[in-house]
Design brief:
- With 467 residues, this protein is an alpha/beta fold.
- It has two domains: 179 residues, YjeF N-terminal domain (Rossmann fold); 270 residues, 3-Layer(aba) Sandwich (UDP-N-acetylmuramoyl-L-alanine:D-glutamate ligase), CATH 3.40.1190.
- Helix content is 39%, strand content 15%.
- The strands form two sheets. It has a ten-stranded mixed β-sheet, with helices on both faces. Strands 3-2-1-4-5-6-7 form a seven-stranded parallel β-sheet, with helices on both faces.
- Helix 9 runs parallel beside helix 10, helix 15 packs across helix 16 and helix 16 packs across helix 17.
- The radius of gyration is 26 Å and the shape is elongated.
């Protein structure tokens, strides 16, 4: 608690000039942190007041001890406490809160936000549920200082937007604690999967690098073409797009290094799928919501080879989700946005819980897309992505992502790791481009991202961890 409070005080002093501060202290350990913050700021010449919810006698353990070490006055947590304050330290409730913020705490924090007084939150803004990112009365903080590791609320919206600048402070908790906790929720980072990221071997060829097959639709031809380029740039040695004969000239004119094959009837697709040199499938982008898409998805899933279902290949099963669940026999990745997710699954609640439940039910890796994409595995592991810039909100970017996932699967990367790696690289590529991004730019940015990742893997001896 001493280290935590001092860390918050240090971060405050780095960012703000000396000014009148009010520390809002709660009845638990977060309040104890607040008393430590107050003591350190006062020692450095800041004018500090403490407003406490309840009384010092209600505090327990270390919180009580640090409250007793505070020599200044303690006033009631009430709107009057904001009088003259130019900075608020929110040490009312931390990540463990599981109910709505109410009473004086809610009133005072709302008033601080209304008056545009900067707020520094200890651990999380009060009213933010730490393990879900759901807000039950939280107001935006300018700065949040948390400890040891981020919580899901720091990464999942709306929590992420309420935290402001986020600092993770080292307060002396040893890394060995993670071994005891055995967490199953992670922030997406190359350290999780870089050791499994495919690299061409010196004696390899296009077939050893993997062959991806993508179902191309008509008249929406752009989606599958974007996916094909994503798969190729992600490293697949061969990419084939199977298309209706009427669409063959369109695809063939636009794709040079990608094979385009006309598929006139279901038996033609079956013959193509039967080629065991094809390592992974993608269906959905621009496929159309009709019986042919459903039939093709069934055919791909029946091989038990890795299959990515996206867009129309998810929506087409909306009237009978159990039909899809029964068809999944091998490795499968589904990449729905929220609307598509709702057509298959009836789960409610926070994003992390919904993605996990869907992965368990379907036995597929779920990539629940958005600004805070969640990748969930059937065994309960989940990864939250945090590097996606707002510029990714553009038509076709999800099609490129689907292609990247199938490109990594074709190279025999494990599905959970492949999905996480593709999502992270997708965000990294977009961030490297900046404003004006369109989906066509993304595949061309992947070589630079891969170059940096391969360099990092080499620096770490070729294996920087696994998922």
């Amino acid at each position: 608690m001493e280290h935590a409070g001092r860390a918050v005080a240090d971060e405050v002093e780095k960012r703000f000039t000396v000014r009148p501060v009010v520390v809002l202290a709660g009845p638990g350990n977060n309040g104890g942190d607040g008393f430590v913050v107050a003591r350190h700021l006062l020692a450095h010449g800041w004018p500090v007041r403490v407003a406490l919810s309840g009384s010092r006698t209600q505090l327990r353990g270390a919180a009580r001890e640090h409250a007793e070490r505070w020599r200044g006055p303690v006033e009631a947590l009430a709107p009057a406490a904001l009088g003259g304050a130019e900075l608020v330290i929110d040490a009312v409730f931390g990540a463990g809160l599981n109910r709505a913020l109410d009473g004086a705490a809610r009133e005072v924090l709302a008033l601080a936000a209304e008056r545009e007084i900067p707020i520094v939150a200890v651990d999380v803004p009060s009213g933010l549920i730490g393990d879900t990112g759901v807000s039950l009365g939280a107001v935006p903080a300018a700065l949040t200082v948390t400890f040891f590791r981020k919580k899901p609320a720091h990464l999942l919206f709306p929590g992420r937007a309420l935290c402001g600048e986020l600092v993770v402070a080292d307060i002396g908790i040893p890394e060995a604690v993670l071994q005891k906790i055995r967490p199953n929720t992670f922030e997406n980072d190359p350290s999780l999967w870089i050791g499994a990221l495919p690299r061409p071997g010196a004696e390899g060829n296009k077939y050893t690098r993997g062959h991806a097959l993508i179902a191309g639709g008509y008249p929406m031809t752009g989606a599958a073409r974007l996916a094909a380029r994503g798969a190729a740039r992600a490293g697949a040695g061969l990419v084939t797009v199977a298309v209706p004969p009427v669409a063959l000239p369109v695809y063939a004119a636009a794709l040079t290094s990608v094979i385009v094959k006309a598929v006139a009837a279901p038996e033609d697709l079956q013959a193509l799928i039967a080629d065991e040199r094809i390592c992974a499938f993608l269906i959905g982008p621009g496929a159309g919501i009709h019986a042919q898409t459903r039939s093709a998805a069934h055919a791909m899933l029946a091989t038990a080879r890795p299959t990515v279902l996206d867009a129309d290949a998810i929506t087409v099963f909306g009237e009978d989700p159990r039909d899809l669940m029964r068809a999944i026999r091998g490795a499968c990745v589904m990449a729905p946005h929220e609307g598509e997710f709702g057509r298959l699954f009836a789960y409610t609640g926070d994003k992390l819980a919904r993605a996990r439940a869907a992965a368990k039910e379907s036995r597929a890796v779920i990539v629940l897309k958005g600004a805070d994409t969640v990748i969930a595995a059937p065994d309960g592991r989940a990864i939250i992505n945090s590097n996606a810039p707002p510029t990714l909100a553009t038509a076709g970017s999800g099609d490129v992502l689907g292609g990247m996932i199938v490109g990594l699967l074709a190279q025999r990367m494990e599905p959970f790791a492949a999905a996480a790696a593709a999502v992270w690289m997708h965000g990294e590529a977009a961030a490297a481009f900046g404003p004006g991004l369109i989906a066509e730019d993304l595949p061309e940015l992947l070589p630079g991202v891969l170059r940096r990742l391969w360099g990092a893997a080499q620096l770490h001896g070729g294996n920087a961890g696994g998922s």
